[in-house]
Amino acid sequence: MGKQGAGKGRPDDAHARRQAIIDGLLADALRPAFTYRLPSHDALPPDIRRAIDRLLAKAEAKRSRCLTYDDLEEALPPRDVSAEDLEAIFWILAEHGIEVEDGEN
Fold first, then answer.
1. How far apart are CA 65 and CA 47, in angstroms?
2. What confidence score (pLDDT) does residue 5 get?
3. What are the DSSP calls for 32-100, one per residue?
4. What's the pTM?
5. 97, 56 in Cβ contact below 8 A?
6. Is the CB of residue 34 less than 8 Å from the CB of residue 40?
7. 88 contacts 48 by C-beta, under 8 angstroms
8. Given Cys at both, which of 52, 77, 89, 99 links 47, Cβ 3.0 to 4.6 Å?
9. CB-CB contact of 97 with 65 (8 Å)
């Protein structure tokens, strides 16, 4: 038989402390997923906004929800584009239901 009265009816302080630590670690691990936001279209550099506008117009003109990487290359500014700029482009396109894929459309 087990210990009688152990843990019955009263909180186990060590367990509560461990649970609080685990809860804190989980909250910290999940926090970036909820607090990180890509910049809005208006907060992007002007040349990246123009690239997005060109891509959206091209998708609308083609009446397609898919663009090619060639379409993307044509729309990008001549400067080196950062990973953050590309991520913002893909994010905004995805918000409009547009994908960029290999191949011709």
1. 23
2. 47
3. HHHH--PPPGGGS-HHHHHHHHHHHHHHHHHT-SEEEHHHHHHHS-SSPPPHHHHHHHHHHHHHTT-EE
4. 0.60
5. no
6. no
7. yes
8. 77
9. yes
CB burial class (10 A; 0-12, 13-18, 19+) of residue 22? exposed
pLDDT-derived band at 31 (thresholds 50, 70, 90) equals low
> Could you identify the residue written with the tokens 């060590």?
14
The SS3 call for residue 101 is: strand
Whole-angstrom Cα distance, residue 83 to residue 66? Answer: 21
| Whether 67 contacts 55, CB under 8 Å | yes
- Adjacent-strand bridge partners of 68: 101
Q: What angle do helix axes 83-95 and 46-62 make, rounded to 10 degrees? A: 40
The pairs formed by 79-85 with CB atoms below 8 angstroms and a separation of 24 or more are 79/47, 81/48, 85/44, 85/45, 85/48
